[in-house]
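Deliverable D5.2: sample structural annotation.
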Amino acid sequence: MDRAAYSSMSAQETDHWWFVARRAIIAHLIEKHVPLGEGAAILEAGCGTGGNLAMLASYGALDAFEYDADARAMAAGRGIGSIDAGALPGQIGFGEKAYDLIALLDVLEHIDDDTASLKSLGGRLRADGRMLVTVPAVPWLWSDHDTLHHHKRRYTRDGLGEVAVQAGLKVQAIGYFNSLLFPLAVMQRVAHQLTKSKAALDVRPSAPVNALLQTVFAAERHIVDHIRFPIGLSLYAVLSR
């Protein structure tokens, strides 16, 4: 991503509605779909500036790697887990250590070879381990926001599942989320197209709006396992060997 995007992310991850609500949903998915016992080994692949480290570390012993040196320094500065340099698909690091949970959270869309990356990470799962992947969804929603954040693609549910299967992984669960706010996002993108305005770096809206959006988005954690959303701004997949 652009350097400014990393700086913006680091500043926003604590209280911006999208980051806070997404963490709540990710935590729910882990608790629902990932069998973790005492002493679980956890890896975050592409930890960025470290906004998910505290949440993931609450489930076990955490390792994380990040390609970008500036983002990695910000993550290491949080003092959570073991942070190292790495890159997908071939530079995971941490010896040959295997993991109970590998989290790949809005990373796969940045990588040229997504199939090879999932295959490489799958090789580091324990026999009963799980990989939790989140990605941006709906290719026709491509906008300046994706360009700004150096995305290579947005996914469909079938497309993400196909990449996982091609990587030799089993799909335990898959679905859309950030669906309740989908109409608002579509209207925003249409407005940008009509006005030909450029996407700006994400900024936290006013406190009342931030709280409202966070409440709506985070509420999906209560229904994501019970309702098969037909569409959403994001996709999740729980994968196994």
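Annotation notes: The mean pLDDT is 92. The first helix runs from residue 3 to 12.
The annotation will be released with the project's public dataset once the embargo ends.
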